[in-house]
Design goal:
The protein has 19 helices and 20 strands. By secondary structure, it is an alpha/beta fold.
């Protein structure tokens, strides 16, 4: 039975056509998937259904939910439908949740606003919904705030909030993009279970084709605001008709094309590193407690080598990167860069700090939005031993931007004027502008769609050969790690539990934890597609 029927949906913003003649149906209990590059119109389609488009937009067409055209309803009528009939899970749970409200109150708020329950009744139901998403009150108090729980737990709270009133349709917009493979697998399994138990429909938006293969019954492929191909999931994978669909699948199986890169001498050495945090005291008489984030970690990176670092959230990957950069103090151990010891947590000489740069997961959050790109890329120049003139600085900035595929005119633009992939190129340009020897890539491509991800990885590969760079590649995307790294480290609870050549670790893991990570990564079934799309 058709629950939602969308036909002839067109959306324009400030006169520019964004969506063109979108048509699809969702049946009760069905998972319908949308895939496509950033800007293809996936999220805009979802926002159209929720009537959450910008004020300057115009929408035409029909979206019939159980006999009612959503596009003919007033804002008051849509407010009654949002949360009750249509729920939505957003990509970034930290920005979707109110930081000054407890998680219990946020789930209960939906119930109270719709006038169905009193505050005490709503809190009781909120506890039940949190338990449904595997956050029982005996382990997770409803009085916790969003910043006190992990990313995966915050996403569970968003799911609990979205299903509080048992909506008929749940929209999930990239709900697992920033999560590690284990947490992603848990969230996906949770969503599938809720769809089955609650008999609701799920509109699942993602750029991860393996996730779509695992989740969706029907798939629509979007390009430039149009649905270019739509069919049952298995049929789509086995018989891709549109050239754009084939392009997406090819990009999802990225390969650097280079298997034997020349390696130099040891550049980075980490020996028996221990990093401990003091935990806050809950009372005056409490004893001082500490958390050991890194437990005796040792490894090396050679000049021109790419080393992968994988593990679940909270295992110590980012803490380790901060100690290497000298931003966090060590309790034990030694770190040397090009033979010079890093005095972690203390002031480092500029000559040493210049040799290391980092590219963060969220380029937009790592830039000051008030400054133009020219100034943002020029930020590391203070590390140079010899100051550059204004003309020299501009020349270096323009050269760095051109090297990452941008234009000279981009120096006078603001960061909000660029797409996600372009922002990541600017972040790479900022890291490269002072010609470092080691670049730490902390989930640098996890939020990008497959086509843009392939372009950025090609760029990183080109820069590595051009400048003989060493990379420490931190990622939860096992496909990317296998494609771009020479060796890989597997981290768990602050320890390196397995290390070796990348292909050997992926093909013959020795540790049970490594096997679980590989099994948790979503895969396209081999019977659905050629083997080249199924490799992890």
């Amino acid at each position: 039975m058709t629950l939602l029927a969308v036909s002839d949906l067109n959306v324009s913003i400030s006169g520019e056509k964004i969506l063109n003649e979108i048509e699809f149906n969702i049946s009760q209990g069905e998972v319908f998937g949308f895939v496509g590059e950033s800007g293809s119109g996936k999220s805009m389609t979802a926002l159209s259904l929720m009537s959450l488009l910008p004020k300057s937009s115009m929408r035409t067409g029909r979206a019939v939910l159980e006999g009612r055209n959503l596009f003919n309803l007033s804002e008051r009528e849509m407010c009654a439908i949002r949360g009750r009939d249509i729920g939505m899970i957003f990509q970034e749970p930290m920005t979707a949740l109110n930081p000054v409200m407890t998680i219990g109150n946020q789930v209960a708020e939906t119930l109270v606003i719709h006038g169905k329950y009193t505050r005490s009744e709503a809190m009781t139901i909120a506890r039940d919904k949190l338990a449904r998403v595997e956050m029982p009150t005996d382990r997770f108090s409803p009085d916790l705030y969003p910043h006190e729980i992990s990313g995966g737990q915050r996403q569970r709270v968003c799911i609990a909030l979205a299903i509080a009133l048992r909506p008929k349709i749940l929209i999930a917009d990239e709900p697992t993009t920033a999560l590690d493979v284990s947490t992603q697998a848990q969230i996906l399994e949770l969503l599938k279970r809720l769809v089955k138990e609650e008999q609701m429909s799920l509109l699942f938006i993602t750029h991860d084709l393996a996730v779509i293969a695992q989740m969706a019954d029907q798939v629509a492929v979007m390009q430039n605001g149009r649905i270019v191909e739509r069919s049952p999931t298995r049929e789509l994978f086995q018989d891709m008709k549109h050239a754009y669909t084939k392009k997406l699948f090819a990009a999802s199986n990225y390969s650097s094309g280079v298997n034997d890169k020349p390696k130099g001498a040891k550049f980075l050495e980490v020996r028996d590193v221990v990093r401990t945090y003091k935990l806050p005291n809950r009372g005056i008489l409490d004893t001082i407690k500490s958390n050991v984030a890194i437990r005796g970690v040792s490894f090396t990176i050679k000049k021109g080598e790419s080393l992968g670092l994988v593990g679940e959230s909270g295992c110590g990957k980012s803490t380790l990167s901060r100690t290497i950069l000298g931003l966090d103090p060590l309790q034990k151990g030694r770190i040397t860069v090009d033979g010079v010891e890093v005095n972690s947590g203390r002031k480092m000489p500029h000559s040493l700090r210049r040799k290391m740069q980092i590219v963060f997961q969220d380029p937009f959050g790592s830039f000051n939005p008030r400054h133009k790109v020219g100034r943002l890329v020029a930020e590391p120049f203070h590390l140079l031993e010899k100051p550059l003139t204004t003309v020299q600085q501009k020349e270096r900035v323009v050269s760095a931007l051109c090297e990452v595929g941008l234009k000279e005119s981009d120096v006078d633009k603001y960061i909000h004027e660029f797409s996600g992939g372009q922002r990541q190129r600017i972040a790479i340009a900022r890291a490269m502008v002072i010609k470092p020897d080691l670049v730490i890539l902390d989930e640098a491509v996890s939020a990008l769609d497959v086509s843009i991800r392939a372009q950025i990885l090609d760029l990183l590969n080109h820069l590595q050969f051009q400048h003989n760079l060493s990379y420490l590649f931190i990622s939860h995307d096992m496909t990317v790690v296998r494609a771009v790294t020479d060796r890989v480290l597997v981290m768990k609870d602050g320890k390196i539990i397995e290390e070796g050549m990348t292909d050997k670790i992926f093909d013959c893991p020795q540790q049970e934890y490594t096997r679980k990570l590989l099994e948790a990564a979503p895969k396209i079934p081999q019977v659905w597609a050629p083997a080249k799309f199924c490799r992890v």
